[in-house]
Write a structure and sequence with these properties.
Mean pLDDT: 85
Number of strands: 37
Number of helices: 0
Strand content: over 45%
Number of domains: 2
Helix content: under 10%
CATH superfamily of the largest domain: YVTN repeat-like/Quinoprotein amine dehydrogenase
CATH topology of the largest domain: Methylamine Dehydrogenase, Chain H
CATH architecture of the largest domain: 7 Propeller
Length: 493
């Protein structure tokens, strides 16, 4: 296992700038991890128990895939190097529905020159379950992995194992055990790479990246829609400027597509961050860029608890001697709500973003500071104003009639968006509710965001009523009480 170093001064040197008059997030904590050499984080996740995982590579002579697991406050638990290959790195990581960790990236075998797309599964203690490599005589690399609704995994990346040897988009679908189900290549005789992938409500996929133009090496951002079997439905490319690329893509809760990336004119050196929203047919709804005289790129994208879009990235001087973590937030109509940059006397690059269970933001990347080399860097942001999801039942006792049906009332408060409520009586689901109307501030006289009322059928005697609430991050909160239906009265305790 690789030695972990925690440099706590990172958080004390942050300077936050915002496009709004009031910052919506504040710094919770910051940590760096590394030892001698060059250490970089390309991806991060929050585990279901609240711990965090960060992955990328550690380099002494060659790059080797490195994973770090931490406590929720960023304090390290362990770090693990995978040095089976001559060179390897992790670019994307998820926790699947079985609570295992799936990672994609690349691996180069010893005494070989080309790299292959790497896909590996492990448990949360870092014990390897299986690993697979995919590719041919050229180079391959996976940039993003997702879990599919059928339990398999899909990966977006590139391959140069083709007739002309130039990189093409490479999308593969595997089953739960990493066995190939299908693969697809898209591209021409230029540098074409798929950098982000998401699954849509129809079990198809949307993919973004860049395609090389034929007129002098310029690149165009592209979005591709695939069916569940990998066949292409439509594709769109975007000529915002001479040079564009999509780095991340999501299928939103309202069945739209949002992609983020960067763009620049061919005659200038600095980039601007880019965000594009389309419908499911690929028709553009809006396009926005964010930038100034410096260099800005968007590297990651999430849909946040309040149905907004938050991008990770970095902003850098054109000399590239200083760079900073960057966050940008847009509403559903494309209005810029705020930006945060975290300026230090260093070079800092944010590569990944996730929203945590407490509605915070986790940024992961790399930092070069104080002449101590490159280290993994993780920054945790916390909302200034937040409310935990909680729900309360009615009073301890109720006077009712002898009717078999009880109007069961409860109050749900949620900082985010509830997706589904399940009400079970004696182990059998009686109510499934996924239609919620949040009260306005004027309506919330009792401080209840979502007042809920359900008619449940009771048997004579003791009944167990269990309520399960699934929120927008697919977390489940549950609570149960005993309800007695007795002659003459009912009461709840």
């Amino acid at each position: 296992m690789r030695f972990l170093t925690h440099i706590l001064v990172l958080v004390t040197l942050l300077i936050i700038s915002s496009a709004s008059l009031r910052a919506q997030y504040v710094v919770d904590w910051a940590q760096t991890y590394g030892a001698d050499g060059w250490d970089e984080a390309n991806t991060c996740i929050e585990l279901r128990n609240g711990d965090l995982m960060v992955a990328g590579f550690a380099k002494l002579q060659e790059k080797n895939l490195w994973i770090v697991r931490t406590h929720p406050n960023g304090r390290g638990r362990w770090g693990k190097i995978f040095d089976e290959y001559f060179s390897s790195a992790a670019n994307s990581m998820i926790q699947d529905t079985d609570s295992n960790i799936v990672i994609t990236g690349y691996a180069t075998r010893k005494r070989e020159y080309q790299s292959n797309l790497l896909l590996m599964k492990m448990d949360t203690d870092g014990n390897l379950i299986w690993q697979k490599t995919f590719g041919g005589d050229g180079d391959e690399e996976g940039y993003q992995v997702i879990e599919c609704k059928d339990g398999g995994y899909a990966v977006a990346g590139f391959t140069s194992s083709n007739l002309d040897g130039d990189p093409n988009w490479y999308i593969i679908k595997v089953d739960r055990n990493g066995n190939m189900l299908w693969d697809q290549q898209f591209g021409g005789s230029n540098d074409d790479r798929a950098l982000g992938i998401a699954q849509t409500y129809d079990e198809g996929f949307v993919v973004t990246g860049h395609i090389g133009a034929v007129d002098g090496g310029r690149k165009l951002m592209s979005i591709l829609k695939l069916e569940a079997d990998g066949s292409d439905t439509w594709s769109q490319w975007y000529y915002i400027n001479d040079w564009c690329a999509g780095t991340s893509i999501i299928a939103t809760r309202d069945s739209m597509i949002v992609a983020a990336g960067y763009t620049k004119a061919y005659t200038i050196t600095d980039y601007d961050a880019l965000i594009v929203k389309t419908d499911m047919n690929g028709d553009t709804l809006w396009t926005r860029t964010y930038g100034d005289e410096d260099w800005q790129e968007a590297t990651g994208l999430i849909e946040a608890y309040d149905n907004t879009y938050v991008m990770s990235g970095f902003t850098a001087s054109n000399r590239k001697d200083h760079s900073s973590f960057l966050m940008m937030k847009y509403d559903k109509r494309g209005n810029l709500l705020w930006t945060h940059s975290f300026k230090r006397k260093s070079q800092d690059y944010a590569k990944a973003i996730v929203e945590t269970r407490d509605n915070g933001i986790l940024l992961a990347g790399t930092t070069l500071s104080f002449g101590k080399g490159w280290d993994m860097a993780v920054l945790k942001m916390q909302p200034e104003d937040r409310t935990d999801l909680f729900f309360s039942f009615p009073s301890d006792t109720l006077s009712t009639t002898l009717r078999k049906t009880l109007n069961f009332e409860m109050c749900l408060n949620s900082f985010g968006v509830p997706i589904e409520v399940l009400v079970s009586v004696n182990g059998r689901v009686q109510i499934i509710d996924n239609d919620f109307q949040k009260l306005t501030a004027e309506q919330r006289k009792t401080g209840c965001d979502y007042p809920l009322s359900y008619p449940v059928s009771l048997k004579p005697g003791k009944n167990i009523v269990k309520v399960e609430i699934i929120d927008y991050k697919n977390y489940t909160f549950s609570k149960q009480i005993e309800v007695y239906r007795l002659p003459g009265y009912d009461f709840i305790r």
